[in-house]
Amino acid sequence: RMEPAEVDPRVLPWVCEASKAIELKLVATEADVEDQGAAFHPEYTHQVVGQSENIYGYKEPKVKLFYSAARLNAFLSFSHNGDVTALDDRDGLDAPPDQPVDQMKEWLKHEYTSNIDEFVMNLANERGFSPVGELVHSYTRPDEQGESVCYEVYQGDATTPGLIDYHKRVQTFFIWFIEAAWFLDLDDDRWRFLYLFQRKQRPDGASSYCFVGALTLYEYYAYPENVRPRISQALVLPPFQREGHGAALLRAAYDYCIRTHPSDKLVDIAVEDPSENFTQLRDKVDTENCWKAFPKAFFVEPYEEAKVNEIRRKLFLGKVQARKIFEILHLHTLNTRDADKLKPFRLAVKKRLIQPHKKQKQNEERQLQALSPEERAAIVLKQQELQDSLHKEYTALIAEYRSVLERAQL
Q1: Residue 367: is its pLDDT beyond 70?
Q2: Of the candidates 51, 55, 138, which has an alpha carbon nearest to the alpha carbon of residue 97?
Q3: Please, which residues have CB within 8 angstroms of residue 384's CB and are 6 or more apart in sequence?
Q4: pTM of this structure
């Protein structure tokens, strides 16, 4: 995003940060339309408005993109309190104002309306909504009043009736909240889709739904007749974040993969280019799953390759992730005040961390005798810098492990 200091002072009054100007909302009733407390804003806008992530040419621009809560029918409007073309003196302001609605049209791959009355009238159609796909998981969470609210996960693929049309609506959320999001090839039959909904009961006894989040995964082929599912995109919308829904959605994806494929055909369940937030979520879920899957004694003794292989076999984690989770839970069982107990753990972790540098270090040690004193001193200094870097990396890793343990429910 272009920072204000980078903008010509004459232009500055006509520049607005796009994430503040764009207002998103899930609308279930007419009252929600005017409820500012229900609004939320995008995290990323560069794919829609450009790398500056600004909207130029208007005073107080406001883009409203509302979705009906269940069907995700869209309403799009744009308003402002004056544009740059109305100025008598446009010296330095020759660039035409941006056209945010036209920019957003390119990303809305389904019909929308700009008539708010039409949008509100169509909310009546939400009553007959049934989620696409098969119900694969459900759970409850308390609401603000302490009442129990039901959440349901539905799974489907490209052959599921209505799914392709529905996912065209869902995937527009990905652009706003996943930095490198892209639209999937919905004709590829290896894609799998999980959708999370909140379900409430109406006074007349019927169910009403609200879209909460989604997860996509791709079932990669693995030689000779195996499969390696890879989680691609996952999102819980801001109004529902920090309530445990991301973990529930990830567990539902794990359960789907394990239930659908024979254990001797399922290699592992991977994640494609995870964000920092998703990595933290995954580590928490994997740590909790692993702690439940094995007795405490399994984690008391230091790392052994056989233990990591057992975790991989039982939980279908990749080798790197399985070892990471073992190290987290081994740390959990240690009395870190006991230096003798902590030492084997520290050495095992540092041995792993130094592996990428090991060959270079060995080559440098072999060359020492053939080098001048100055060159040897330079290599010794470089090796000391490596040791210092290794210590910092270890310290940061332990802090990361402790963070996982603080959030995990063990």
Answers
A1: no
A2: 55
A3: none
A4: 0.89
